[in-house]
Amino acid sequence: EMLIDLARSYMKNVKTTHKDGGFLSSEQSSQKQLQELFRRCDGRPLWYKVVDRKSRPLYTFWKRESSAWVEPKLATGQVLMISKYDDDWYTVIDETYLETRYIPARYLKETAMVLEADVI
Questions:
Q1: Torsions phi, psi of 106, nearest 5?
Q2: What's the CA gap between 36 and 38, in Å, rounded?
Q3: How far apart are CA 102 and CA 108, in angstroms?
Q4: Would you tell me how many other CB atoms lie within 10 Å of the CB of residue 108?
Q5: How far apart are CA 32 and CA 36, in angstroms?
Q6: CA pair distance 63, 49, nearest whole angstrom
Q7: Preceding omega of 72 cis (within 30 degrees of 0)
Q8: Could you tell me if 67 and 73 are in contact, meaning their C-beta atoms sit under 8 angstroms apart?
Q9: Is pTM beyond 0.70 here?
Q10: What digits encode the pLDDT tens for the residues 75-120?
Q11: How remote is the C-alpha of 96 from its chain's centroid?
């Protein structure tokens, strides 16, 4: 959440380094600078889509333990915005949840979820 607020603040205050008549417009320059900011950030927001998993349902977790799963299961095709917490867990960025939710990194490693979008 702090990263998203930082990015919004950065975009409001960024100044272009190109003079009038340069190759990039002010908006293009801002986009390029924001992309560079995110490219260097390991915890940047990513959007992952849940893949059809008939063999084993996927869940979010209320703490970073495999026994802390929460109903309901994730729906096939559901897209979650996530940010890397550590090597084993990602934080779900969703203000509709009352508490922080997590998903295990193994979901991504096992391709139970696939990259849908990136900020860069």
A1: -60, -25
A2: 5
A3: 13
A4: 17
A5: 6
A6: 21
A7: yes
A8: no
A9: no
A10: 999 999 999 999 899 999 988 888 899 999 999 998 899 999 876 6
A11: 15
The amino acid present at 14, given as its one-letter code, is: V
For the record, the structure tokens of 70 come out as: 């929460």
pLDDT tens, residue by residue, 94-106: 888 888 999 999 9
Neighbours of 54 (CB within 10 A): 6
Which alpha helices (DSSP H) does 14-104 contain, by range? 26-39
Are 64 and 89 in contact, with CB atoms under 8 Å apart?
yes
Q: Is 90 exposed, middle or buried (0-12, 13-18, 19+ CB in 10 A)?
A: buried
Q: 44: which 2 tokens?
A: 């940047």
Computed over its alpha carbons, how large is the radius of gyration of the chain? 17
Q: Where are the beta strands (DSSP E) in the chain?
A: 46-50, 60-61, 69-70, 79-84, 89-92, 101-104, 113-118
